[in-house]
């Protein structure tokens, strides 16, 4: 039975009216399990109108009351973690254990946003001039929107929705059409937690829905996460329509392995960060950079041995290290990149192309692949593959290894494995990427710090979550006041100074 999904607008499930639908697959079997409506312009505009009305009511809640809604939401999710993780895994294809992590990293940002009374406190200068006080306050923007990718269907919607609504905005979420069920369930739970209807609307759709959000003057700000070409398009279009935007794109994350690194630890880190979630993470390691031929030879010998033990299986198989890819199109794309790497002259040491899971021949499974002797002119090095493919670029020395991620067009995350504090410290300060791990392969910052890549991995000046998210979802009003004496001196035609 194919379920028919809805939008979630004004606190209600609203069936699609456009007549257009997308298919949601079971990546384990390749079968369609649900149909998701794709909203047209009129449907998105109705959601915006609804959000605009709800926002006025919500902004009048004091911050402490808004925080209590987030706290109740956290309690409600606690009661259904397992079912949410299963639902997520069933549409995305990541393992259930990994789906728990997806949810957890999102909930941590809700916990952070529950501190909103403290986070919204403004600044005050007493007696900035004689009898004059200056103070600033952070006020919500109004209606804001988030457009999110398929690969973290719980985490990224929560990274955006929680700070946005905590600040007093209404939020319209346009989740990925590949796995929309968890975002819809999270919106129901927010309503149950006491969020007024319409403060969090979920509108499913594709380009038409996004274009409407970009062009409608009632939407004040847009947060986007997805591939770089769309991130760049959303950023430019939002700016052209006078909107605030933060847009995060693709990645090519390197891991430098110094000759003094613990190689067993480095290999474990590489297989986990390279192949976990079938490589469908923006912080996945896709390029290993061993420094020196000896390090490279030893690393590769150990990697090949370890890859041979990896278990690819159904997403609900507790023994699986990773499950299927999300869709047939992505599977074909990644296979195409492996073909290309061979044509380009890289050495394919482990070939995952022919992997099949018995009884699941129509599922979107791909084995782990490993390329050695990849060079910087190859497309498999320059472009994001977004699958279980690890490439090895050998560097002669530390400076060459440092240059590789620094000169790459993407600048999301990077890691260095070494036992030397001085090397790690130098690397952390000089490498040209937004997030750095020292003996940590996936350095996704914790909720109260901020997450964001550099170069073509991130467009906009403020990061996600942490204090930046409060700045992004509010605007500052600054008040200069003099009273009770008022203006006694009469009109002044000069710019006021604080004499
Ligand atoms: P995607 O760009 O295909 O889709 C992202 C969102 O944009 C979806 O909601 C989709 O419906 C919408 N969209 C797609 N085409 C559009 C168009 N032409 N106009 C307007 N909207 C459009 O990305 P994806 O495949 O869902 O996600 C994978 C990508 O996201 C990878 O590149 C990955 O690196 C990136 N990602 C980045 C981060 C980060 O923080 N930098 C985090 C997660 C994922």
Automatic annotation (TrEMBL):
Keywords carried by this UniProt record: NAD, Oxidoreductase
Keyword field contains Metal-binding: no
Domain Aldehyde dehydrogenase: from-to ranges: 22-479
Pfam families (alphabetical): Aldedh
Keyword set includes Oxidoreductase: yes
Gene Ontology process terms (BP): L-valine catabolic process; thymine catabolic process
GO molecular function: methylmalonate-semialdehyde dehydrogenase (acylating, NAD) activity
Top-rank taxon, per record: Bacteria
Listed PROSITE patterns: ALDEHYDE_DEHYDR_CYS
Gene3D superfamilies to which the protein is assigned, alphabetical: Aldehyde Dehydrogenase, Chain A, domain 1 (3.40.605.10), Aldehyde Dehydrogenase, Chain A, domain 2 (3.40.309.10)
Entry EC number(s): 1.2.1.27
InterPro entries reported in the protein's UniProt record: Ald_DH/histidinol_DH, Ald_DH_C, Ald_DH_CS_CYS, Ald_DH_N, Aldehyde_DH_dom, MeMal-semiAld_DH
PANTHER family, per the entry: MALONATE-SEMIALDEHYDE DEHYDROGENASE
Protein name as annotated: methylmalonate-semialdehyde dehydrogenase (CoA acylating)
Species for this entry: Kitasatospora kifunensis (Streptomyces kifunensis)
């Amino acid at each position: 039975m194919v379920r028919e999904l809805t939008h979630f607008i004004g606190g209600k499930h609203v069936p699609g009216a456009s007549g257009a639908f997308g298919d949601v697959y079971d990546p384990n079997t390749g079968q369609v399990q649900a149909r998701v409506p794709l909203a047209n312009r009129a449907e998105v505009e109705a959601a915006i109108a609804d959000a605009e009305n709800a926002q006025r009511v919500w902004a009048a809640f004091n911050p402490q009351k808004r925080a209590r809604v987030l706290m109740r939401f956290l309690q409600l999710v606690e009661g259904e973690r397992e079912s949410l993780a299963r639902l997520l895994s069933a549409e995305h294809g990541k393992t259930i254990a990994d789906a728990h992590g997806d949810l957890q990293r999102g909930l941590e940002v809700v916990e952070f946003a529950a501190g909103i009374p403290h986070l919204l406190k403004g600044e005050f200068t007493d007696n900035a001039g004689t009898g004059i006080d200056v103070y600033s306050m952070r006020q919500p923007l109004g209606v804001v929107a988030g457009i999110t990718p398929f690969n973290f269907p719980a985490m990224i919607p929560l990274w955006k929705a929680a700070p946005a609504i905590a600040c007093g905005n209404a939020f319209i979420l346009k989740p990925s059409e590949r796995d929309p069920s968890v975002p819809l369930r999270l919106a129901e739970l927010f309503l149950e937690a006491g969020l007024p209807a319409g403060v969090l609307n979920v509108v499913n759709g594709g380009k038409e829905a996004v274009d409407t959000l970009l062009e409608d003057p009632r939407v004040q700000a847009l947060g986007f996460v997805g591939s770089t070409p769309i991130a760049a398009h959303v950023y430019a279009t939002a700016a052209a329509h006078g909107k605030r935007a933060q847009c995060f794109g693709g990645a090519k994350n390197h891991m430098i392995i110094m000759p003094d690194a613990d190689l067993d630890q480095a290999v474990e880190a590489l297989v986990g960060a390279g192949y976990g979630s079938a490589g469908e993470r923006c912080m996945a390691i896709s390029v290993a950079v061993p420094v020196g031929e000896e390090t490279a030879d030893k690393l590769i010998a150990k990697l090949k041995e370890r890859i041979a033990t990896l278990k690819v299986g159904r997403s609900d198989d507790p023994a699986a290290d990773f499950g299927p890819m999300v869709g047939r199109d992505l599977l074909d794309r990644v296979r195409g990149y492996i073909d290309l790497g061979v044509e380009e002259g890289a050495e394919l040491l482990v070939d995952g192309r022919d992997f099949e899971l018995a009884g699941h021949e129509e599922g979107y499974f791909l084995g782990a692949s490993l390329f050695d002797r990849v060079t910087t002119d190859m497309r498999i090095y320059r472009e994001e593959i977004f699958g279980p493919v690890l490439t090895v670029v050998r560097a002669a020395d530390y400076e060459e290894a440092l240059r590789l991620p620094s000169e790459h067009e993407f600048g999301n995350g990077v890691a260095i494995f070494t036992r030397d504090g001085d090397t790690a410290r130098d690397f952390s300060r000089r490498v040209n990427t937004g997030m750095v791990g020292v003996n940590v392969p996936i350095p996704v910052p914790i909720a109260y710090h901020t997450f964001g890549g550099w170069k073509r991995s991130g467009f906009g000046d403020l990061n996600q979550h942490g204090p930046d998210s409060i700045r992004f979802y509010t605007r500052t009003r600054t008040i200069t006041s003099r009273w009770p004496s008022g203006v006694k001196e009469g009109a002044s035609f000069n710019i006021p100074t604080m004499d």
